[in-house]
Design a protein that fits this description.
By secondary structure, this protein is mainly alpha-helical. The chain has a single domain, classed as Orthogonal Bundle (Arc Repressor Mutant, subunit A). Helices cover about 70% and strands about 10% of the residues. It is built from five helices and two strands. A two-stranded antiparallel sheet has the order 1-2.
């Protein structure tokens, strides 16, 4: 996997490490694009904290800002970075399949 993909995956995993950011992503996935104010009304967190988390999610490429009515910014999910992270995990899993099967066979006494 190219280094760029690893950097994207690293940003995605760092963003997903925080439960508040996962809640924001889940809310956007369930209800579609929303403003920071909309999200603050639905989640137990202040609008200012939501805005901070949206900035970090945007930096990771997981959300994109789009202009809304009356200069309000709406955030929508962007799944491209998530797909890169999924590909990273799939490649990692493939690398582990052989050694894990060999370990299982060894432990089962099937060498």
């Amino acid at each position: 996997m190219p280094a760029d993909s690893e950097a994207v995956a690293e940003q995605v995993f760092a963003a997903l490490a925080d439960p508040t950011r996962r809640s924001i992503l889940a809310e956007l996935a369930a209800r579609g694009p929303a403003t920071a104010t909309d999200l603050a009304a639905r989640l137990p967190i202040t609008r200012q904290a939501i805005a901070k988390h949206l900035g970090l999610l945007s930096d990771a490429g997981l959300v994109a800002a789009e202009p809304g009515e009356r200069r309000r910014v709406r955030y929508r999910l962007d799944s491209a970075p998530m797909r890169v992270a999924q590909q990273f995990l799939a490649a990692l899993a493939r690398d582990w399949d052989g050694p894990l099967a060999a370990l299982r066979a060894h432990l089962d006494g099937e060498e």
